């Protein structure tokens, strides 16, 4: 006679298949999570949210710094010709003032 333990009912087979499948999924999820953390250069037990927020803050600060540098460089490039023109006008005005002063002295 065959033993009841040797019999696999469809329900038992389904339950075993389900447990095997959930175990495989859990193992795959664990491996994916491990690789994800490794790709970020983190330990698997690291606080992912805190690390991501720290990186976002660092990247935002770097981005703001680069924008500030770009704006300053652009303003300097725009201002250079204006400053040069102003210096030229100032020199011309000073020469004209000298000529006016000379003419006024000659009148006296």
Attribute tags:
108 residues; mainly alpha; rod-shaped
Q: What's the topology here?
A:
Layout: H1 10-39, H2 48-107
| Protein structure class | mainly alpha
Total beta-strand segments? 0
Query: What helical percentage do the residues reach?
Result: over 70%
Query: In what range is the share of β-strand residues?
Result: under 5%
Biggest sheet details: none
The ordered string of helix (H) and strand (E) elements is HH
Whole-number average pLDDT? 87
Number of helical regions:
2
End-to-end Cα distance, whole Å, is: 144 Å
Envelope shape: rod-shaped
Rg over alpha carbons:
40 Å
Which residues sit in consecutive blocks of at least 5 with pLDDT less than 50?
Answer: none
Question: Can you offer a commentary on this structure?
Answer:
The structure is a single chain. The protein has a domain at 64-108. The termini are far apart. 83% of the residues lie in helices and 0% in strands. It has helices at 10-39, 48-107. The protein has 108 residues and is mostly helical.
Summarize the structure.
By secondary structure, this protein is mainly alpha-helical. The protein has 2 helices and no strands.
């Amino acid at each position: 006679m065959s033993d009841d333990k040797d019999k696999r009912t469809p329900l038992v087979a389904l339950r075993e298949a389900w447990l095997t499948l959930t175990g495989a999924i859990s193992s795959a999820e664990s491996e994916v999570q491990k690789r994800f953390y490794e790709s970020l250069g983190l330990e698997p037990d690291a606080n992912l949210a805190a690390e991501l927020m720290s990186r976002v803050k660092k990247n935002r600060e770097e981005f703001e710094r680069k924008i500030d540098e770009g704006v300053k460089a652009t303003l300097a490039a725009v201002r250079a010709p204006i400053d040069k023109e102003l210096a030229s006008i100032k020199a011309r005005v000073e020469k004209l003032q000298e000529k006016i002063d000379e003419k006024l002295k000659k009148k006296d």
